[in-house]
């Protein structure tokens, strides 16, 4: 099983960051790669569409409001992986109440691609996503 993780300090207090990203259906609010999200099954499944019109379906598998994190599995996607499980979490930065650290991590099995290729793919997605989050919070 392959894995990757990306962290980024963003310019907002942890609760403000969580208020923006903590909703499972909130990706279009901060992630340009996902302009459309439809909540299904009472909000436990999200059907995402990327700018190319490709569909990604993900299921919420863990959610913790108090600790500010959630985990999800991919049910359907154009990615060369199976067994995908990802977590996004918001951390407090010790001694600072004006910034937060956001960590986005995932583990998965390559399918039809090398481990290096899929690690690079998701590292890029997470990095670009956290860069977009930083930009949104800086505006």
Structure in a nutshell:
InterPro entries: Polyketide_cyclase/dehydratase, START-like_dom_sf. The protein is of the alpha+beta class and 139 residues long.
Overall outline: globular
SS element count, helices: 2
Helix fraction bin: 10-25%
Name the beta content range. Answer: over 45%
Query: How would you sum up the major sheet?
Result: 7 strands, antiparallel
Rg over CA atoms, rounded to whole Å, is 15 Å
Low-confidence stretches: none
Helix-strand category: alpha+beta
* Secondary-structure element pattern, one letter each: EHEEEEEEH
Question: What is the rounded distance between the termini?
Answer: 38 Å
Strand order within the widest beta sheet: 1-7-6-5-4-3-2
Number of strands: 7
Whole-number mean pLDDT:
96
Quaternary structure classification: single chain
Structure overview:
The chain has 139 residues and is α+β, with helices and mostly antiparallel strands. It is 23% helix and 47% strand. It is built from 2 helices and 7 strands; from the N terminus they run βαββββββα. The protein has helices at residues 14-21, 115-138, and strands spanning 2-10, 36-40, 45-49, 55-64, 69-76, 81-93, 96-110. It has a 7-stranded antiparallel sheet. The longest helix is centred in the C-terminal third of the chain and has 24 residues, at 115-138. It starts with a strand and ends with a helix.
């Amino acid at each position: 099983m392959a894995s990757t993780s990306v962290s980024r300090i963003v310019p907002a207090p942890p609760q403000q960051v969580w208020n923006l990203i903590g909703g499972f259906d909130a990706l279009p609010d901060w992630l340009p790669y996902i302009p459309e999200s439809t909540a299904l099954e009472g909000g436990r499944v999200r059907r995402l569409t990327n700018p190319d019109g490709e569909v990604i379906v993900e299921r919420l598998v863990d959610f913790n409001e108090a600790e500010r994190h959630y985990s999800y599995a991919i049910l359907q996607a154009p990615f060369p992986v199976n067994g995908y499980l990802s977590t996004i979490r918001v951390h407090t930065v010790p001694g600072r109440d004006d910034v937060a650290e956001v960590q986005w991590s995932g583990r998965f099995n390559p399918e039809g691609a090398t481990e290096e290729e899929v690690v690079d793919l998701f590292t890029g997605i997470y990095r670009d996503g956290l860069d977009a989050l930083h930009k949104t919070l800086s505006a």
